[in-house]
Amino acid sequence: MNPFKGLPEATLIEDPSDLEPCRRDESHLRGTLPLALVKPHGPAALRELVRRAKAEGFGLVPRGAGTGKAGGCLPTERTVVVDFSAWPGEARVSPQDLCLRAPVSVLLRDVKAAAEAHGLFYPPDPNSWESCSLGGTLATNAGGPNACKYGMTRHWVLAVEALLEDGELHTFGISSVKANAGPSLGQLLIGSEGIFGFILGATLRLTPLPRERTTLLLPVKRWEDLLDLPGRLCGAGFLPSAFEFFDPAVLAELRAHGPEEARRLPGEALAILEFDERGSTSDAFLEGLLDLLGPVAEGLRVASDVRQREGIWAVRRMTSAFLKERHPKKVSEDIVVPRSRLRDFFAGLDRLGFPAVTYGHLGDGNLHVNLLAAGETDPALLDRQLMDLFRLAIDLGGTLSGEHGIGLAKREAFLALSDPAQIQALRALKRALDPQNIFNPGKVL
Ligand code: MLT
Ligand code: ZN
């Protein structure tokens, strides 16, 4: 008998051609054809899905807007995709508690807009912020340019509502920044990519919206001159709310083949810096910054109006998609090193000697190293190149993923390169929380 028929409070999709799109996210991977896709509209659907998954031996794969970069939402063998886009509810702000409660189905852009309507700010801003779901950002602990100052998604989560293997919804955490009654199961779920249970909603911490913001373009003649700047700025008390960069190869591609705004971008390499503290638009602030930066700041330009700022950010935001269009089989990594080790990282990357171009979040050391020729590289060689890249980052005190997560794409490397005690402990937690391995099987661990 069909195990999905008669599911309460749910929309069921079984036609293979309608299932095709959920085999993709924004990684270079493709999942297997799932048994079905279910859009739950209420708790009865989840209760019943969990019961049937256990009884029939199939897995459940959570899906938000499908904008993930590591294959975390792709179906594996004998799985049902649980698409949360129809999960009910809306974002509600509590200005008194400086927090916002929202279901996973709400888009991140609507979460940010709901906060802004009250003069409040929810900082996480992954590149996909206009199209990704809140649920995806919670499951992957999403980052983005603002993480440089404000940290990752997990730093903004006060409470989590989650489906556990008993088929019920549970809440972990409260609407306050202070909650210290034992270890936090809610925080364990953030960034767990759905392997311990599925997040259905969250209470997010908010902060007053910054009232000032200055956006600077910093073109340089020798791109290595950028590499010490994040550390120098932070060491001198300047903490940018974003510090992004394009290396010479990425900048040249953008200039030659990108949109109109990109064609006018100056420099051999280019950084975009943003500051949002009080006083950051003053002349005194800019003078202090110029003093600190010295000759490297020769070409520094202030984005004079909103249009110019938006133009600069539009180019940065489309970089990933632009490179993908030009190099459809590229592999984009997201290693991170402490900002004080950026120069050592690039020296190491040179020594590794394989062709790679880089852009990304220089301010927090999270670099999108892109292997544009991945499609034409022998798969075994490509695997070795990626492992060498990850080892380089780890040896410098960094890690193999700064913001995209492990999913399917980095699972093998994660298992091979992590402290075995960490893997053992995570597997023990997985067995305890999901003894029948129904939640996102085959991912991360
Ligand atoms: C970005 O910062 O553009 C994204 O994280 C995507 C990427 O290029 O990997
Ligand atoms: Zn990024």
TrEMBL record:
Superkingdom per UniProt:
Bacteria
InterPro entries to which the protein is assigned, alphabetical: FAD-bd_oxidored_4_C (IPR004113), FAD-bd_PCMH (IPR016166), FAD-bd_PCMH-like_sf (IPR036318), FAD-bd_PCMH_sub2 (IPR016169), FAD-linked_Oxase-like_C (IPR016164), FAD-linked_OxidoTrans_Type4 (IPR051914), Oxid_FAD_bind_N (IPR006094), Vanillyl_alc_oxidase_C-sub2 (IPR016171)
Q: Does the keyword Oxidoreductase apply?
A: yes
Keywords tagged on the record? FAD, Flavoprotein, Oxidoreductase
Q: Which residues form a coiled coil?
A: none
**One GO MF term:** oxidoreductase activity
Question: What cofactor is needed?
Answer: FAD
- Keyword Flavoprotein listed? The answer is yes
Boundaries of each FAD-binding PCMH-type domain copy? 30-209
Q: What is this protein called?
A: FAD-binding oxidoreductase
The species this protein belongs to is Candidatus Geothrix skivensis
Species classification: Bacteria, Pseudomonadati, Acidobacteriota, Holophagae, Holophagales
